[in-house]
Design a protein that fits this description.
By secondary structure, this protein is an alpha/beta fold. Helices cover 34% and strands 22% of the residues. Helix 9 runs parallel beside helix 10 (252-260). It starts with 11 loop residues before the first strand and ends in a 9-residue tail after the last strand.
């Protein structure tokens, strides 16, 4: 499926715009790996495109309207030019499918996230069948990944994403993922290792394993812990990470990996959503704060340098003052180093869609208070690293080519005075200054410096 050739389609240019999570970034890269087979080249300029593809996310508020707004921009750009082939992919495509084709005639193709193995045939069929609009939104993760495994992942980045698991069986009452990505599916173990090897052979030094519930990975008895230990055996791999995890799936074997792994980074992104057991139960999160803190304590005991980041939904329906205080108490206890926080917004088709909302003024006040504390945690942690030396994996030069950019073990951006020959290496950087999001420093030439 999807390996047909069409000489009439050669030398076409595709513009891909990606919204949302790292999994969408991975998918966009793999979509391009696929359409290259039917003659598409990538362009970074709208106006050059013969094909415009928008890879969408349905998690945040007004996701659907962002699509139509984006299509409006494309219409204006191509008002006096030949219309490009317009494809909507991703989770909004899955959720809205035929409705999008009816509402916006400018859209030609709608392809859900489990149908990317069909994208080449879909494009060619559209061309051959005189532009009959097509919608592909069946859930077929097995065929998708079997197809993509035959096409090399050409991301070519120092830090490369690798999707190992898709979909969700948790059915949190606020979340659309089970409806847009389908049930949990874990890719074959060997298929993942083969892709990891190819990424490393192509220059990747860090592998970031992705999944909607990445730590729910389970294929023929292999777990996420097995993947980590096998991937870190690849000689040129310097770092391994994974995201996003569910507290319910922080199993003992995964926790134990932090004792033995040499390359797993000491940052755990573990979305908690609320510090209140009452709200967690209302959300159908399937974990308690006590269980969450048990995982936190176990990991801290293994390695005190392990830090946590998280996600918070503020003012979920039914959240009272005490529930909010419970969330503040959790933040004070864990001291998350980097977190995402949003006011609850109902998603169509979810259990929470029609629940009574918390008053907007109260919600805004709560969000501001939470973010002030979370941001201050980030500022203080980064401040504590000033005049210390950190290990940095160098990813690229800055846009103006004057500095180098990399990340610390805790995923913090570091900008310093390196050079292009440092790209792909782990170097020691003495931190001179910081802000909430970044560290700034100078490369250390004396390798005997103590690392923070």
């Amino acid at each position: 499926m999807g390996l047909r050739k069409n000489p009439n389609n050669m030398n076409q240019k595709i513009f891909i715009k990606t919204f949302g999570c790292q999994m969408n970034e991975y998918d966009s890269n793999r979509i391009f790996d696929s359409v290259k087979k039917i003659g598409y080249e990538k362009t970074e300029k709208y106006e050059e495109a013969n094909c415009y593809l928008l890879n969408t996310c349905h998690i945040r508020d007004k996701a659907k309207e962002k699509v139509y707004s984006e299509i409006g921009r494309v219409k204006k750009i191509f008002r006096s030019k030949k219309k490009p082939l317009v494809i909507i992919a991703g989770c909004v495509a899955q959720a809205e499918n035929q409705e999008m084709l009816k509402r916006e005639p400018y859209i030609d193709l709608v392809i859900g996230p489990q149908a990317y193995h069909k994208i080449n045939d879909t494009i060619l069929n559209y061309t051959e069948k005189k532009k009959k609009k097509i919608e592909e939104t069946e859930f077929d993760a097995v065929s998708k990944f079997n197809y993509l495994s035959k096409i090399k992942n050409e991301a070519g980045k120092v830090s490369s994403f690798l999707t190992i698991q898709e979909g969700c069986d948790k059915f949190c009452h606020f979340c659309v993922v089970p409806y847009t990505r389908g049930p949990e599916y874990s890719r074959p173990f060997k298929q993942i290792l083969d892709e990891a090897k190819y990424l490393v052979d192509s220059g990747a030094k860090e592998i970031i394993l992705l999944g909607q519930n990445v730590n729910a990975y389970d294929n023929e008895g292999y777990r996420l812990s097995d993947l980590i230990l096998n991937i870190e055996k690849l000689h040129d791999v310097k770092r391994v990470r994974y995201t996003t995890s569910h507290p319910k799936d922080m199993t003992e074997d995964l926790i134990e990996v932090y004792k033995t792994s040499k390359k797993l980074m000491p940052l755990v992104h573990l979305p908690v959503q609320s510090g209140s057991n009452k709200i967690l139960e209302s959300m159908n999160r399937k974990h308690t704060i006590e269980e969450y803190l048990s995982t936190f304590d176990k990991l801290k005991e293994i390695n005190p340098k392990i830090e946590f980041s998280s996600d918070f939904i503020i003012s979920y329906p039914g959240e009272e003052d005490q529930d909010f205080k419970d969330t503040l108490n959790l933040i004070e206890r864990v001291k998350f180093i980097n977190s995402y926080s949003f006011i609850f917004s109902p998603r169509p088709g979810t259990v929470a869609e029609n629940l009574d909302l918390v008053e907007k003024k109260i919600s805004i006040e709560r969000l501001q208070k939470i973010q002030n504390i979370l941001f201050e945690n980030q500022i203080q942690l980064n401040k504590s690293l000033e005049d210390k030396v950190v290990d940095v994996l160098v990813e690229n030069l800055t846009d103006d080519q004057s500095k180098t950019f990399g990340r610390s073990e805790h995923m913090t951006s570091v900008i310093f005075n390196g050079k292009s020959s440092d790209i792909g290496k782990i170097v020691k950087v003495r931190i001179k200054d910081s802000n909430r999001n970044s560290l700034f420093g100078e490369i250390v030439t004396n390798s005997n410096q103590k690392v923070a």
